[in-house]
Amino acid sequence: MEINVKKTLLILLALVFPFSAHADTLKVTAWNIEWLGSHERNIRNEADYKELARYAKQLNADVIALQEVDGADYAKKVFGDEYDYYFSTKDWVQRVGVAVRKSAGYDVKSIEYKALDVGRVRHGMDIIMTKGDKQLRLLAVHLKSGCFDLPLDSKSIAAMPAEDDRQERRKIACDILGKQIEPLESWIDARASEGIPFMVLGDFNRRFVKDIANKQPEDAGLWQAIDDEGNEALWSPTLEKESACWGGYYKDYIDHIVMDVNARAKYVEDSFEQLVFEPEYTKEISSKLSDHCPISVKLTL
Fold it and tell me: Which residues, if any, are the signal sequence (predicted)?
């Protein structure tokens, strides 16, 4: 009799508070789809777009942070009309965007985060997703390439050699990436004060495991700069994994899905995955698929 009373109470509570008994599981992905746009370096034909679409269907993500995609028209070649697309307006084919599955039922507000453009680099996309009392905030990024693990403080950069074109490009890259730290950290600090679960995801062009292994100080390591204590403590599953993309040639991730303490509390344990392409690596095949494999996590909101 007591068991029946408990069951009756549970049913009544579910009827009165239907949303309290229901949680959404969102699959969130970051994918740099190399030169997916109107640039001459995009050598894909229709069969290649169909192959990308096959992988996108296999990925089956609810939210996708996209890099190197020239707007919604090109994104639809891969992901179709099932998503709403939010892209930066910077006049460059390597745009940053976010795709949100329409059937997920979230109201979406997008804000272009231009502060990351510290000199001929890409904007971020700040996305606020709301459904009832559920909320998630995302910043999709594609930071400056070319300074994957060198110190980012001004003294170290000033001491870097620039005796040939390669060294000069690397020095410039480190200088620009170092300047992106302040706007990135400012966004994170502002979000941490709000208490809403948030993530920063995309192509950071930075090997966080190297920042940690090298014990970089806060002004020299990108990870150390953004990872603080308390509400600003951050985590990414890529800190504990090795990449298997294209045979694991680059085992250290530069694509990351970084979560604050509130988002990590909603992380489905062991849900991190990397979708690895089936063919063996050749430069041509990787150019038609991508030089980056998508990475994903699941959150229960």
Answer: 1-23
Question: Region 269-289: what's the mean pLDDT?
Answer: 97
DSSP-assigned states of every residue in 66-121: EEEE-SHHHHHHHHTTSEEEEE---SSSS-EEEEEEGGG--EEEEEEEGGG-SSS-
How far, in Å, CA of 136 to CA of 129, rounded? 5
Q: Nearest-CA neighbor of 259 among 219, 299, 213?
A: 299
Domain for residue 105, yes or no? yes
For residue 271, what is the domain's CATH number?
A: 3.60.10.10
- φ and ψ at residue 43, rounded to 5 degrees: -105, 15
Backbone angles phi, psi at 219, to 5 degrees: -90, -5
What's the pLDDT tens digit per position in 245-273? 999 999 999 999 999 999 999 999 999 99
Is 12 domain-assigned?
no
